[in-house]
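(Structure overview)
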Amino acid sequence: MKVQISSERCQGHGRCYDLAPDLFGDDDEGYGQVLGDGTVPPGQERQARLSASNCPERAIDVLEEET
């Protein structure tokens, strides 16, 4: 699973990095950014989905890996 943030949609509410600080951080202006390459470590899938569902702008995309 991977996550990504659309910079065009992000309005800087900060819910992503409040809910999943191991996956998301903020830039100098308070907009969310993905930490690392966006790969969600095992056991943090729930936090990734929770962040995506709580983003008021729907700026977070969760990409499920195909098996």
Notes: The longest helix spans residues 45-54. The first strand starts at residue 2 and ends at 5. The radius of gyration is 11 Å.
